[in-house]
Amino acid sequence: PTSSPYCFYLFIFLLFCTPISLPLPFGEGLFHFYPQNTHQRRSKRSLRHRQHLEKDRRVKKVLDQEGFGRQKRGYRSIDEIYIKMTDPLFSKQWYLINTGQADGTPGLDLNVAEAWGLGYTGRGITIAIMDDGIDYLHPDLASNYNAEASFDFSSNDPYPYPRYTNDWFNSHGTRCAGEVSAAANNNICGVGVAYNSKVAGIRMLDQPFMTDIIEASSISHMPQVIDIYSASWGPTDDGKTVDGPRELTLQAMADGVNKGRGGKGSIYVWASGDGGSYDDCNCDGYASSMWTISINSAINDGRTALYDESCSSTLASTFSNGRKRNPEAGVATTDLYGNCTLRHSGTSAAAPEAAGVFALALEANPNLTWRDMQHLSVLTSKRNQLHDEVHQWRRNGVGLEFNHLFGYGVLDAGGMVKMAKEWKTVPERFHCVAGSLQDVHKIQSGGKLILTISTDSCQGKDNFVRYLEHVQAVVTVNGSRRGDLNINMTSPMGTKSILLSCRPRDDDAKVGFDKWPFMTTHTWGEDPRGTWVLEVGFQGDEPQRGALKEWTLMLHGTQSAPYIDQIVRDYQSKLAMSKKEELEEELDEAVERSLKSLLSKN
User: Fold this and answer.
1) What's the Cα-to-Cα distance from 114 to each of 81, 93, 111, 297, 355, rounded to whole Å?
2) pLDDT digits over 536-575, tens only?
3) Euclidean distance between CA atoms 99 and 90, whole angstroms
4) Which residue is catalytic, options 109, 132, 150, 172?
5) pLDDT value, residue 322
C-alpha cells in the first residue's frame, strides 16, 4: 500500500542467507529482507533493524525501498468520480453517473464522466430533435439552441415552439432536448449528455395526421448543418401494426446517409419502440432500417423496462425507467415553460441519450461516417450488468456478444470517444443479393417450414461481401393469424437471429408481410459465405395455416477487413478480439490462395 510506513530492505549477502530473506529471481546475491516480528508493526519504520543490518559482516549494502502507487487500468471506482456541477437535478441523473441513486446499480451508466474528463462535451455538434417542438425559451436550453437549423413543419414556420395544451401533452420534444443539450453549471434543472452541443427543434409530430412529405422534409432538413437526428416516435406501438417509411421518406434517408455532413452521412438515431412483449420492433420500418441506429433501454438496475420491444435490428441500448415506483428512478430533464421533471421515460428517453453520446464521439473525430458510428457502437457498447429475463446473452460467429433486446450492450461514452479519436474510416460498403426463393411454400401448425439459401456472397464480382454489417431477409408471407408467425434465420457461422417474434394482439389474416425487409445486426463481422437457414412456423394455442411466397437474402458489408488497420489500445477489448480474428482469417485465406496457385502451376 502506498500509505504504509512498512520498510523493505534490499541487500546483498556474501554468505548463506538467513531464513527471513527471499532470493529475487532477477539478480544473483540480491535478497528481499523482511525483518522478523515487524510484519505486525506497521505503524512506523524500524531504524533499529536497519542499523542491525549495517553492522552485520555478511551485508555489503542496505537500500531502503519506498512504496509507490499502481492502479488497475480499466477499473473505475464510483467513489473516485467527482464531477462538480451546480445544476440541482444533476445528482438525480443516474444515467449519467450512477452511484446507486433510486436503488440503482452503481456503475451502470453511460460513462460520460470519462468522456467529459477527456474534454469532450459536444462542442460544435448540432443535434435535431424531430418531435412536437421544443421550448427554446427554456433557460436551460436557450444558450444551446440553434435557431438556424430549426423549423416547424407542422405549422410551416421557423418557430418550432410546442402548442399549448392543458395536460402539457406536447412536452415530449422539450424533455428529449434537455437530455442532449441542457447547459451545465447554470443552477437550472440538470445537465445534457453533450452539454456544449447545439440543439435544433424540428416540429413535425403535432398535426392531425402524418404525411410522407412532412417526414421526408424533417429528415432531410439542413443536412449540412445538422449532424445527428434524434427520433423518439414511430408507427403505433399496439402490437398489431406493421408500418414504415414511405417512398419520399426512404429517399430522404438514403440521401441523408449518402450526402449529409459533406458526404460522411447524417446520423439517424431511433427509439426502438414501447410495445413491450406484445410487439416486435422488426415490424417498425424506421427502427429496423439499416440507415438508423436503433436504441433500446434498460432501467437503473440493469433490467429491461416493461415497455421494451425486442428485435434483431437493435444495435445498442441506453437508459430509461419502466418498472420502479421510486419517483427519482425516471429520467431527469427539462420540461415545458422553464420547468424541470424527473418523470421522462420510455425508449423516447433512450434515443436522445444515445444522440448525446454520438455527439461526444463526433467532437472527438468529426470525420466519422454514419457507418463508422455504427461500428463504434458495436465495438464499445458493454454488457455491463444488463439482464434480460427472456433472452440470454450470446456470441456470434466472430465472438461479438449480443442480446436480442439490448443489442451489443449499453453505450459507453468514454470508451467511444477514445476509440473514435484514432478511428480510421471503414472500407467501402457493398451489397449482394445472395439468393432468392420465389416458390409458394405452405406453413402448418405443429411443424416448421425450413428453407435454405447457399451463397458465395457474390465472390468474384464487384459487389462481393466478405465482412457483414447488416443482413436483410425480404419476406412475403401471410397466414390465418399473422400474430402467431415466428421467423428465425441462422447464418453459415451458426448465429441464430429471431427475425419475428409472436405478437399476441395481431389478428391480421389478410395482409401479412409483403416484401417486408426483416433486418439483423447479430451477424456483424461474420463471413456470409455458406448456407443460410430460414425457419418459419406458428406459435399459439389455435391451429393456423399460411404460405411463404418469397425469401430474398440481401447482404451488406465490406470486402476488406474493417478493423485490421485500427489502432488497438486495450488488448482485452472487442476491437482487439475482432482484429485478431481478421488477421487470422486473412492469413488463412492468403495461404489457401498460395496453395491453389502452386497446385495450378504444377
Assistant:
1) 9, 16, 6, 21, 17
2) 999 988 999 999 999 999 999 999 999 999 999 999 999 9
3) 12
4) 172
5) 65
The answer to pTM > 0.85 is yes
Distance CA 150, CA 136 (A): 10
For residue 348, indicate whether it is catalytic. yes
Closest CA to 179 of 318, 309, 327: 318
- Hey, what's the cell of 487? 421467423
Q: How many helices (H) and strands (E) does the chain have?
A: 9, 24
Residue type, 504: P
Residue 5: φ, ψ to 5°: -85, 5
Question: Among the options 49, 87, 109, 131, which is catalytic?
Answer: 131
Q: Tell me how far apart the alpha carbons of residues 529 and 526 are, in angstroms, rounded to a whole number.
A: 9
**302 CA to centre of own chain:** 15
Indicate the Cα dihedral angle 493, 499, 504, 505, nearest 10°: 170
Residues recorded for the chain? 602
- Distance between CA atoms of residues 548 and 514, nearest Å: 10
Please tell me the predicted confidence (pLDDT) of residue 416: 98
Question: Given 197, 348, 491, 578, which residue is catalytic?
Answer: 348
Determine contact, residues 42/4, Cβ cutoff 8 Å.
Answer: yes
User: How many other C-beta atoms lie within 10 A of the C-beta of residue 34?
Assistant: 15
Question: Is 279 in the active site?
Answer: no
Instruction: Indicate the range of 50-54, 185-189, 339-343, 571-575 predicted with least confidence.
Output: 50-54
Task: DSSP for 334-401, please give it.
Answer: E-GGG-EEEEE-SHHHHHHHHHHHHHHHHHH-TT--HHHHHHHHHHH-B-TT-B-SSS--EE-TTS-E
Residue 21: band (very low, low, confident or very high) from pLDDT cuts 50, 70, 90: low
21: annotated active-site residue:
no
Indicate the residue type of 1: P
CA of residue 87 relative to chain centroid, distance: 27
Buried/exposed code over 564-596 (b: 16+ C-beta within 10 A; e: otherwise): bebeeeeeebbbbbbbebbeebeeeeeeeeeee
